[in-house]
Amino acid sequence: MRLFHAACIATALASASHATDQLTPITSDVSTTDHPYSILYILPGMSVKDAEIALAEHFQREEMHREQVSLNIRSPKGREFKHQYAQRLTTPWIDPFVRMGPDSYEEVTVDLATDVLSNRVLAIHRTLVMVEQDRPAPEAIINQLIDTYGQPSGMELGTYDSELLYAFDTNGFIVDIKQLEAEMHPIVPNVPSTASLSRFGSQFHDDVPCIQVFGRSTFYKFQMPRQEDPNTTCDMAFIVKIRSSSGKTAVDFHLMDFRLIRANRNETDTQILKALEAPQSSSKLKL
Asked: What is the pTM (predicted TM-score) of this model?
């Protein structure tokens, strides 16, 4: 088994102080796919520059931050691959003090591909926190979401937390994810169910498309051997969560394109492995 050592270090610098290995941009068909949803006019496949422009127009300020990360990977033979790229866009004026403070705020992060997809947008996350007395009730927010986007694939309503999921598998939009679960895993009399995931008031099997997308990282991380991907049948997911308390209402939006995420991961893996396994010329030490 090949044992690779890898590290991914976040930095605040815009450029590295040392030369880095290169990743070659490719043309991916999924990066030009039309998307039915967007967040603040930002959608998966968009260029990082266009995403920055959209955010600057929305917030009326040009202070978006490109968070840089450094990939440092060493092969069993000692060959190193070092590369730095922008992993995401953030709204830097939203810090822990703002999040813990008493005021309303809006925060956006945009997850980006590596250089193999020219740092295109993979996912968009937006959080709205409202503390005003006249803020809309959770039910009104849910009604607006359904009026805007239609009936979700799955929905769970709670006293303090609610969630809407709009999911797409390889066949297109999943109209009813509970019904899909029933079709994939029909109940057999006198045979115990093996479903283990509790979502939307039901028990689901983990192979139901998009049932495990919430909380999954979209960032590139080198792993070899790579672990099994639980989202291979999920193409895209749009998730909205509403959290409500007596003094605060928060709405979280997450739009993730898993076709782009997989294409970015697979091509980045391929190029890194090729670089690590390339034949090396002999050294020129004085022996």
From this structure: 0.88
